[in-house]
Amino acid sequence: MEVAFILEKLILVVIVFVITLVIAMYSTLAERKVAGFMQDRYGPNRAGIGGILQPLCDGGKFFFKEEIIPAGAHKVLFVLGPVLAIVTACISSAIIPWGQSLNINGREISLQVADVNIGVLYIFGVIALGVYGIMLGGWASNNKFSLLGAIRAASQSISYEIAMGLALISLLMVTGTLQLGDIVRQQSGFVNWNIWVQPLGFLIFMTCAFAECNRVPFDLPECETELVGGYHTEYSSMKLGLYMFSEYINMFVSSALMASLYFGGYNFPFMDQLDLSQNWITIIGVIVFFLKIFGFIFFFMWVRWTLPRFRYDQLMHLGWKILIPLAITNIVLTGVITLIKDSYLQ
After folding, report:
1. Rounded to an integer, what distance in angstroms lies between the CA atom of residue 163 and that of residue 207?
2. CA-wise closest residue to 184 among 280, 112, 253
3. Which residue among 109, 192, 335, 338 has its CA within the 20 to 30 Å range from the CA of 86?
4. What burial class does residue 328 get, using C-beta atoms within 10 Å of its C-beta: 0-12 exposed, 13-18 middle, 19+ buried?
5. What is the Cα–Cα distance from 209 to 156, expressed in whole angstroms?
6. How many other CB atoms are found less than 10 A from the CB of residue 314?
7. Cβ(214)–Cβ(221) under 8 Å?
8. What is the pTM of this model?
9. Is Manganese there in the keyword field (predicted)?
10. With bands split at pLDDT 50, 70 and 90, how would you rate the model's confidence at 69?
11. Nearest CA-CA partner of 89 in 116, 117, 129, 48
12. CA angle 89, 286, 21 (to 5 degrees)
C-alpha cells in the first residue's frame, strides 16, 4: 500500500509539474494575443497555425543564446538566483486541490499532492522564500539597476504580504481551518462560495497577488523605463527564461489559489444534482477549476494592457495606508458579524 501511495503521488507530482510548465509556456503566447486583441492588431501568427508554436520558438531561442556572466558578478549566487525563483514557484502548487478523488479499481486517489493542515501557512512560507531568488539575482549581478530592482521587490513583497495575510485571517475566521482541502470542500454549493461572505477580503487578496507576482501596475522591480530591466538586467539565455517562467508560474498558482479560497475551487453549481458517477463529477470539476484559473489569468493580462504603472510612492501608499487599514477593518467586521450570527442562532 505504501509503494502504491508513493507511486500515485509521484505520478500526480509529474502531471502537475508538466501542466504548470505548459500553462506557463503558453501564457507567454496568450499575453501577446490578449495584447493584440486589446490593441486591435494581430499577435504572434507566424510560427505554426495562429502562432501556436511561438512558445517553442521562444524556448529554443533561450536555450541557444549565449550564456553571459558579468565579470564583477558573484557567479554562484548569480546562477542560484533564477534557480531559487523557479523552484519556489513550482513547489507552491503542492497543496492546491485540483479536484475530488478518483475511484480507480476500488482505490480512492486524491488529486492533491499534500493536504497539510497548515496549507495556508505553507503558501506564505513559499511566497516569502520566492523573493530571495530575486534578491540574490539583483545583488549578485553587481549592477546598480539590478540591485535597485531587487530592493524594490523585497520592500514591495514585505509591504503587501502583510495586507494579504490580514485578508486571509478574515477568511480563516469564517472557515475555521488552515487546510486548503477543507476550505474548498466547505464551498460545495454555489451560495457557499467564500466570495459572498468575504468580498472585501478577496479584493485585498487579489490586489496583493498582483503585487506579489510583480504584475502591472505593480511591476516596479522590473520597470524598464527607470531600471533598464530591473533585477534581471544582466541575465541572458535560459537564466532569464527561468525568471520569466517563474513569474508566469506564480501567476498560474495565484489564480488557482484565488479560485480555491474564494470561488469554490473544483465545485460548480448543481454538481450534487447530476446523476453521474464520482469519476465524471471529478473530471468535470477539474475542467471547471481550470476554467476559473484561466479566467483569472486573463484578468491578470487584461489589467496589464489597461492600467499604467504606479509610481513607487503610490505603491507604498496603497500597501501601507490603504490596504492594511482595510484588511484590519475587514477582520473587525467579520468578527462582529460572526458574533451576531452565533448569538442569533443560539
Report:
1. 9
2. 112
3. 109
4. middle
5. 11
6. 12
7. yes
8. 0.92
9. no
10. confident
11. 129
12. 30
